[in-house]
Specification:
136 residues; mainly alpha; 4 helices; 80% helix; 0% strand
């Protein structure tokens, strides 16, 4: 028995969801970037490591994704879902340490929000593009 394809949602249903998830993705992305920057410049005990090296390691993956996210690329949002898992894991591990608990909780929550919003944006954007191309 062949699997029947589900009908795509209407464009009117997809448009507000695309706007909301894109805005949430951008907000979370910027919040994560700012959190990492502020934490490492102001609060982190780097034990003698150079600040610019730590910042480079943490921020370069986000900077590579930034152009695609700001342009609204569905593929960049999909890649963000993969990359942001690193920050979620880092946040959970930091939350275990009492000295970095607040940072860890914030990082895990922001990265989780970024993951969910980017995932929904990717799904709905591909559905939107398929609907615009004339697929039923």
């Amino acid at each position: 028995m062949a699997k029947q394809t589900k009908p795509l949602p209407a464009l009117e249903w997809l448009q507000p969801r695309l706007k909301l998830t894109r805005a949430l993705s951008l907000f979370s992305f910027i919040a994560l970037f700012v959190l990492l920057l502020v934490w490492n410049l102001g609060f982190a005990d780097l034990h003698g490591a150079r600040t610019w090296v730590v910042l480079s390691i943490q921020l370069v993956p986000l900077l590579l994704l930034a152009p695609g996210l700001f342009l609204g690329s569905a593929r960049a949002h999909a890649w963000t879902c993969f990359v942001v898992n690193i920050y979620f894991i880092q946040g959970v591990l930091a939350a275990i340490d009492p000295a970095r608990m607040l940072f860890g909780i914030l990082e895990a929550l922001i990265s989780f929000e970024l993951f969910c919003s980017a995932l929904l944006y990717t799904r709905w954007r591909f559905q939107y593009d398929r609907k615009l191309a004339g697929e039923a």
